[in-house]
Amino acid sequence: MGSGSADFRPLALSMGEPAGVGVELALALWAARRREPVPAFVALGDPAVFADRARLIGLDVPLAETEPEGAPALFGDRFPVLPLGEPCRAEPGRPDPRDAAAVVEAIRRGVEFVHGGRCCALTTLPIAKAPLLEAGFAHPGHTEYLGALAEELWGQPARAVMLLWAEEIAVVPVTVHVPLKDACAALTTDDIVETGRVVARDLRRRFRIEHPRLAVAGLNPHAGEDGKLGSEDAEIVAPAVERLKAEGIVATGPHPADTMFHAAARKRYDAALAMYHDQALIPVKTLAFDRAVNVTLGLPFVRTSPDHGTAFDIAGTGAGNPDSLRAALGLAAQLAREPLPA
Ligand SMILES: NC(=O)C1=CN([C@@H]2O[C@H](COP(=O)(O)OP(=O)(O)OC[C@H]3O[C@@H](n4cnc5c(N)ncnc54)[C@H](O)[C@@H]3O)[C@@H](O)[C@H]2O)C=CC1
Ligand SMILES: NCC(=O)COP(=O)(O)O
Prior knowledge:
The chain is of the alpha/beta class. The protein folds into 2 domains: 1-159 and 299-342, Isopropylmalate Dehydrogenase (3-Layer(aba) Sandwich); 161-298, Isopropylmalate Dehydrogenase (3-Layer(aba) Sandwich). It is built from 12 helices and 12 strands. The chain starts with 10 loop residues before the first strand and ends in a 5-residue tail after the last helix. Bound molecules: 1,4-dihydronicotinamide adenine dinucleotide and ligand LD2JLWAY. The site of the ligand NCC(=O)COP(=O)(O)O has 6 residues, from helix 6. It is found in: Cytoplasm.
């Protein structure tokens, strides 16, 4: 199915939050694989979570426990799953912080499989941040954790950057999982420049855009209105744009964020750099909620995710739309196939 021939390494698919919608979206995509092929993956997590959810939503999905190497050949007939961690306790829609270790383990093992050449890339099912943080997890999201894992396993510094990508829009938040008041206070010229460098490099290397055009948003209304509505645009953002340009990166801004995302404006850039999480994610989720993919740039491997979260309100109903996960799996397989230019 898709790349489900035995010649291909599978994608690693981490279980995500076992109470969330991700589990059933993966099952639904597998169940529909003959109509709409998906790249072969191996799900990493508690097999009972997948089996119970399939039963609950009325899908006939035979599971097969396997190591990654066995997944491509199995994929046509069985849903491949590699058991990890302890049995999970969550019920659909009701997360249990005692599952945190298993959730984190699935992500870590996925990265290890990619590092070891046993999987071609990682796609993550959504996690809920609160139960993980409650259980003592040290990172506010996958992005930050993946940066730390990359440094640990590859032994080189990694600046993990969140890109939300769809055909019609691509956005990058410079500050990510940070409370808004702290994001404003923490924003620095260096952060914008370093993020811009990663985006320009990876759009070129991974997305094959030869001269990526970056549009940098201002922080304040009307990008500060000549300093009358805040000084950060002139003092922090504008110097970052100048530094990126001086390095030969095509960058413009600071642009008033409210007028950067309409159709004509989006034609002028390949990615928008936003100064905080919602400035980036509101436009992409408004325009392309069921298609957009979260891609982590700046890593020595490919990681994608659907753009949405755990959707506890519909978990266990079978009503979730799997299209963003389908796009995430497809993009991961596509990016992993492309050899990286120097
Ligand atoms: N990549 C990840 O791990 C992500 C995790 N999250 C986490 O998810 C949790 C819930 O976040 P929310 O802000 O509520 O966002 P959410 O995306 O989980 O849900 C927002 C709304 O969209 C709907 N929705 C989401 N995915 C859907 C799908 N596939 N089909 C149909 N409807 C869908 C939900 O039912 C809900 O009404 C939080 O803990 C958040 O941290 C959020 C975004 C990404
Ligand atoms: N809102 C996007 C999001 O929270 C996803 O973050 P991550 O877990 O992929 O870092």
